[in-house]
Amino acid sequence: MVQYRVNLADESAQIKFGARLAPLLSSGLLVNMHGDLGAGKTTLVRGLLRGLGHTGRVRSPTFTLMETYETADQAVCHLDLYRLSDMEELEMLGIRDYLDGDWTLWIEWPERAPELAEQADIDLTINYAGSGRELVLAARTAMGTAVVEKLT
């Protein structure tokens, strides 16, 4: 399994790393994001979207379950499954439409939807490291490996 590990000093560094990831992505990529509450999963997605040219607000999908963004280069679906009660909620949101290969999906709390999580190309874990964060990206598929290898 190909892995990439990086320590980021603060929120600004996390946003910059998200922007660095942006040009490495391809449609159809699914990323599981693991980390405690407040670890910065949405912050990372905000940086990613800034790197894709999105200038609008980036909201946490904690209460809506899903936020979508379409930029000139990429369509991004950001899910937060922390409050998911069952898979039917995802079906009602039209999750299958976002799995069609045109979107990149970034999923917080993927363990709440194991059927979806097992399809991931990358497992991304954010751990507290003092006042900063340690990010670990672990590829699970050939598509994920291509992204992770570009970081090294």
How would you sum up this structure in a few lines?
The protein is built from 6 helices and 7 strands, in the order βαβαββααβαββα. It has helices spanning 11-21, 41-51, 87-92, 95-98, 114-117, 142-151; strands at 3-8, 30-35, 66-70, 75-80, 103-108, 122-129, 132-139.
Which CATH first-tier class would you pick?
A: Alpha Beta
Shape: globular
Unreliable parts = none
Please work out how many helical segments DSSP would assign: 6
As a percent range, the share of strand residues is: 25-35%
- Class by alpha and beta content: alpha/beta
| Helix content class | 25-40%
**CATH level 3 topology:** Rossmann fold
SSE ordering: EHEHEEHHEHEEH
CATH homologous superfamily caption: P-loop containing nucleotide triphosphate hydrolases
Can you walk through the features of this model?
Helix content is 30%, strand content 30%. With 152 residues, the chain is an alpha/beta fold. It has one domain: 3-Layer(aba) Sandwich (Rossmann fold), CATH 3.40.50.300. Strands 1-7-6-2-5-4-3 form a 7-stranded mixed beta sheet. Helix 1 packs across helix 2. The longest helix is centred in the first third of the chain and has 11 residues. The mean pLDDT is 93.
